[in-house]
Amino acid sequence: MSLSFEGRVVLVTGAGGGLGREYALAFAERGASVIVNDLGADTKGGGKSSAAADKVVEEIRAKGGKAVANYDSVEDGEKLIQTALDAFGRIDVYCYALMFTCVFYLLLCITDLIQRVHLRGSFLVTRAAWNHMKNQKFGRIIMTASAAGIYGNFGQANYSAAKLGLLGLANTLAIEGRKYNIHCNTIAPVAGSRLTETVMPPDLVASLKPEYVAPLVLWLCHEQCQENGGLFEVLKLSLYLRWERTQGYIVRQKNQSMKPESIRDHWEKICDFTDATKPSMVSVCEAKPLWCDFCDATCFLSLNYTFFCFNPLSVFSSFFSQTKAVGQKLPPTTFSFNHTQCILYALGVGMSTKDPDHLRFLYEGHPDFSCLPTFGVIPSQAAMMDGGLSSVPGLNIDFTQVLHGEQYLELYKPLPTSGIFPLIILQKELVFFKLLEKFWEMKQLVYMNTYSGNELVCYNQFSVFVVGAGGFGGKRSSEKAKPPVPPPKRSPDAVVIDSTTRDQAALYRLSGDWNPLHIDPSFAAMGGFKAPILHGLCSFGFAARHVLKQFADNDPSRFKAIKVRFVKPVMPGQSLQTEMWKEGNRVHIQCKVKETDAVVLAGAYVDLHGASGASPENLSQGGGLQSELVFAEIGRRIKDVGSELVKKVNAVFGWEITKDGKKAAQWTIDLKSGSGSLHKGPYGGKADVTMTVSDEDFMEVVQGKLNPQKAFFSGKLKVRGNIMLSQKLEVILKDYAKL
């Protein structure tokens, strides 16, 4: 079958003549809508004219094709892509066809112009098109390099540098675009055109026709073609190029020094291409993957006539060993603490004696002395910082490249103010350790349970990104990771602004996060920061206590869970602005730096227990009502599959349980907001349906001894509101009861 580009939108730069014109005509002939870009410059790069682009557009339209002209420089990449969007509504293919500039001009022009037109220009156009291709999950990009860039050529240093730079850009785009179905390939064509006729004999120019190059370009741009990251020379033939790497030679042995004489003596072996490998990605010593772990030797590899020295301590040395970390389990550990650590943590997240409400978290003699709920991250973090992760086989972490990505904390009961917490790290089904590849970052997911005695106290999910790691083909997502949730599209219900101090990070680190990124300026500079940054979990603590005060009267027993995504760093001394939206028992939060309006915590929320009830795990401990056991089971089910129930039910149910003719308990089942919730007490707003029934009759119905319809018609079950919604309760109790 012939290859069709019907429905595709193609941008060709330099399309007023030569190769670009040939590409534009060929794409249009096969149904594509084409943006014909040409600045209209002369062979020396001067002047500007619309004639060249207009002529090609006229040719395409005369044959019944669709095309528009664009006369902007590639340095105005946004304008080129906007032309495509305005004319055709999308962009699918970008072909960079600027190829050769005459030698005379090369000798006269400044190097900067060559770099701007060939390298920076192609980058700017690609950047403008990238998100559009990413969102539509399709894109094809062709970069035009040159033999001068691949092999070098006399008198063309500036041009050669730009063209080989294009190859490096294309190779990286191929890696980054792969997951979005964006493919990028590079061609190095030789063709006759007005730019090559000054340096080639006329008969050679005539024999190297641009139409010999176009078929390869069209195939690489078609949706059927899965080639990605390739390099092709094109004359009359289409040729695929690849790298070769020698087996190398281990020069330095363990505990021995390295000398240049050793390199000299083994030079033939280092450069011997017998049994050469063909590398296709950044890696270390494909031929000898075991040295990283066993011989501590430095390998010298000849890579197409250039030798590279790889230090086993570099970030690349972890590539082979990282796969060993996947699924590793560590033995349990313990965390001991007392009221001092609780108070120190409260001070670290900005609490102060200036606020009388804070005293219950700062003074051990206070009658309601309590531990802040977010202190629950500290025992787990201590386990990781104090050797938990560093003892995972194969996991070598450069802390200058460590960024905290997301955090989820769930409490099953209020935290004590002292004790010994056993922690289970990477243990069985309860806690997992997985590595998720995100291009050249590694995302570490650590799931951790914390106990007080034999009782589960809290659960943590840490998501940590290590920049520069990865590339080992791990999973890209996790079914157990709690997803961020965007806030409602309305004004926040409450906003709290709180200032951090210049020493906030220095104070917070005393709770156990010893990463020097937050205290040492030189270390921070190695990570790319101008100064030490505030801990993400410090901002996390600020935001959580803002919610606790605003919507839970600083009652830590009301706190259930918190999820945040860390977006940008905060500098100590900046002010945090927490915006809050309350929906049922969930409070959505977004945290900004007040001075810059930059969002630092996103997709965040805090789940609270109802004001007059306790968590589902404690519901069966009081009240003397049999129905409490049923509601406890309902609470557990909502906790497990609440999000699915919200999609199916989308309603709020109120229950009034009576005993001896008097109202004994009220319950609210909220299957309308967030991931669903159960709390003891009336609903804050208006429930969709409210049911009144005695404790005894409720249990009769649940156990199937009393038909719900008979209970309703006999007056034992009273219903207010949308009675039809009561039928949806079956999805909560199916398989266990008939209500």
TrEMBL record:
Protein's cellular compartments: Peroxisome
Domain SCP2 positions: 633-734
Domain of life (superkingdom): Eukaryota
Pfam families to which the protein is assigned, alphabetical: adh_short, MaoC_dehydratas, MFE-2_hydrat-2_N, SCP2
GO MF terms, alphabetically ordered: 3-hydroxyacyl-CoA dehydratase activity; isomerase activity; oxidoreductase activity
Transmembrane segments: 93-114
InterPro entries for the chain: HotDog_dom_sf, MaoC-like_dom, MFE-2_N, NAD(P)-bd_dom_sf, Peroxisomal_Beta-Oxidation, Sc_DH/Rdtase_CS, SCP2_sterol-bd_dom, SCP2_sterol-bd_dom_sf
Region (Disordered): 474-494
First-listed, main subcellular location of the protein, grouped into a coarse class: other
Record GO biological process: fatty acid metabolic process
All copies of domain MaoC-like, residue ranges: 487-599
Pathway stated in the Swiss-Prot or TrEMBL entry: Lipid metabolism; fatty acid beta-oxidation
SUPFAM superfamilies attached to this UniProt entry: NAD(P)-binding Rossmann-fold domains (SSF51735), SCP-like (SSF55718), Thioesterase/thiol ester dehydrase-isomerase (SSF54637)
Any Gene Ontology CC annotation: peroxisome
Keyword vocabulary terms for this entry: Fatty acid metabolism, Isomerase, Lipid metabolism, Lyase, Membrane, NAD, Oxidoreductase, Peroxisome, Transmembrane, Transmembrane helix
Domain Peroxisomal multifunctional enzyme type 2-like N-terminal: 335-468
Family, per entry: Belongs to the short-chain dehydrogenases/reductases (SDR) family.
Full protein name: Peroxisomal multifunctional enzyme type 2
Provenance organism: Astatotilapia calliptera (Eastern happy)
